[in-house]
Amino acid sequence: MKKVFEVALGILTAIGGFVDIGDLVFNAQVGARFGMSLALVTLLGVFGICVFAEMSGRVAACSGRATFDLVRERLGPRMGLANLVASVAVTLLTFIAEIGGVALAIMLVTSISEVLIVPFVGLLVWAVLWRAKFSVMENVLGLLGLGLVVFTVALWQLGPSWGDFVSQAATFDKPGKEDWPTYAYFAVGLFGAAMTPYEVFFFSSGGVEEKWTSKSLGIMRANVLIGFPLGGLLSLSIAGCTAVVLGPLQVDVGALSQVALPVAVAVGKIGFAFVIIGFVAATFGAACETGLSAGYSIAQFFGWQWGKFVKPRQAARFHLVLILATLLAIGVLMTGVDPIMVTEISVVFSAVALPLTYFPILVVANDRDYMGEHVNKAFANVLGTIFLVLIVVIAVAAIPLLVITHMGAGM
Amino acid sequence: MPPLTNRLDAPWLDAALHLLDRQVVDVDGKMVCNVDDLELIEGAGGEMAVTGILVGAAALVPRFSGRLGNWLRATWISLGAQYAARDVPLYLPLDLVEHVGSDVRIRVPREGLLDRQPASGPGTAQHRMDDFLGMDVVRDGERLGHVLDVRLQPRKQESRMLVVSLVVGRGRPGSLLGYDRGDFNGPALVKWAVTSLHRHSHLVPIESVRSVDWDAGRVEVSGPVEPLRTS
Amino acid sequence: MAASRHGYCGAMRRARKWCARAGSLIVAAGLAAGCGTGAPASTSAWQGSADRTLGQALSGLGTARVALRLEAQDRAPHDFTVVTVTDAIDTTGKEVSGFQVAQPPDGLHRANAAVNQALDDAMSLLVDVRIALASPGVDGAGAGQLIDRVDALRKKLDDLDQQVQSSPASVGSP
After folding, report:
1. pLDDT for A83-123, tens place per residue?
2. What's the rounded Cα separation, in Å, for the pair A220 and A113?
3. What is the DSSP letter of A367?
4. Which of residues 98-137 of B touch C (CB under 8 A)?
5. Span A2-404: which CATH code?
6. Domain end (from B78, B112, B127)
């Protein structure tokens, strides 16, 4: 059982990247509109985040340096600041959305107004960030987030034509009704969601929180190789479910309630209970992940003490950032902004911030001062370089695609 | 965390590559600050040495050079117009530093550690590393490029690190990555790009430096320079 | 960073120039698309937006259909099916009202009216579904009737959408 909990960090990180509130809806939308024709993009994203999370985890284990330390050391204060502003903006937007997302998930089964739920959720998130032990947080949220595996079960129950799924995934084509730029927009969104920068901020800082050393590399790799593929599986299952149930009805998924429909169709009320637990845990987990990531990156950029492995009073500035972030989130959500809209925008913008985050990781993973004997092997370098090129292409394409496709609505 | 190589035991150490922007950690493993800048003292005989770590907004903000940097700096000062020495950074003397690796470790606890930078002694001039970096280097009337990095000689027992040479090259991004210093193993594409951008970089021994004009940001050099080793 | 300060200055200048250009392009594109003006849309823009809005109505009705079936078979909590249809009304309503305030091309007023009528039908059917679901709740027969109405309207919207795309001028003519 202890072994199971050792991979909780990877699972929680992946949940924040693949099935947070924005991605739940985004994946469902992709499934309903594109079937499985974008499945390879998700797989590619899983592969890419595995490559870079492994690198950042290795740097953290070998040197105790988390990702934003590297960003400032290798890019200097000026470019580092540019990255900080961009990454923290994306991370905070997502944090705001996740708190709203928890509220949306609760609203699916109660009729309490959002205005009443949001402050309560915000305070609860902050209390977890302030008081809960890191290991308790990741174990509980990671485990409950696995409730979303019910989507995989539901897909099995729905019994789709697997041959069709495979051929849709394997051929490079789009459904006739959609145009290529929209297809590309969703591909960029999926890839950007899989590789959002706060995942490596959280994963590497979490490694420091868990006091990894170069002896922990095995555990770290297990986290990467179980967590992220699991995230990818959940994301594909959601897409598969909506492809079967909502796709034929031409439903364009835009609300969380629609995401849950296929599970209720396939598994009934028990499945639905799992979905709600999964939704709440995943969005709550993503809120913790993004909130902490914002605190981690700001503290690391300025050299402040950070982390939950010390008492809050010893990392006072870090906790101050968390408090301000929570207040900001509650304030923004009280204006009634749609959290799902917020994350969909932030996913595409995060694609723009990607190169500035992943490049320093790749460089430092080759530095013997940090890594000793654990520097990148040729294999990691080749993969890292390929994905870095891909990331740059996507960063350049993201905003133009957002504009010309009206955020995926079609040209 | 077992310490990896300690740069203080190595024959040389590059200020920008190995020291600037690193995390400072105290004797209990608590984080103190980042190396926001370095104090550079010019002695009466013209010799230069790094003597301390500069910390805080007063050290960091000027490093956001350009228009943004100037604006940030003015804003920072005006936010506390009533304070004297708003522009004087906090200071960490170099003799507290025990280890330079992926972080900078000091031998004391962090409580009450940082104080204002003291004024320099008689006959010496106080500068900042960041002002030195980026200066134009001119050799007998011909431009060599900019100061990309400053090579220091670490002496563990002393409270200063002497400047032994300057890494000079075209003002292009990427020098912070260290590939031009040749102690990296990959990835091939990045290495190729950086080394080809910096193929005209030189190592200028401090003996060849004739004068440093701090106001104009210009270093006059004469005598031999050696090409930078790239393995 | 300072080591290559001058290189970055150049880069920043270029970046600022680029930003200014990109900004003016966006503004120009906005003006070209007729944002914020009461000028009639071009035929193709109207077709595109009619397609999107009819698609959204189809989507809302599709969602309602699934919710009705779940309620009839008692496969999901009652509150959830109500929330689902409320959400569908919400998202569809936004898109529909966005379409209805835009000025259609001069030659397509009749077609526009036909599309608007269909959209209104869809909205009121969605509201009917929600009212029936919320209270008193639907049984198998009631759900079946509503599903039949949903299917009929979805067929109509689908045909209308195809006509809008192929020959917009003929839409709404007797």
Report:
1. 898 889 889 999 999 999 999 999 888 878 778 899 999 99
2. 42
3. B
4. 130, 133-134
5. 1.20.1740.10
6. B127
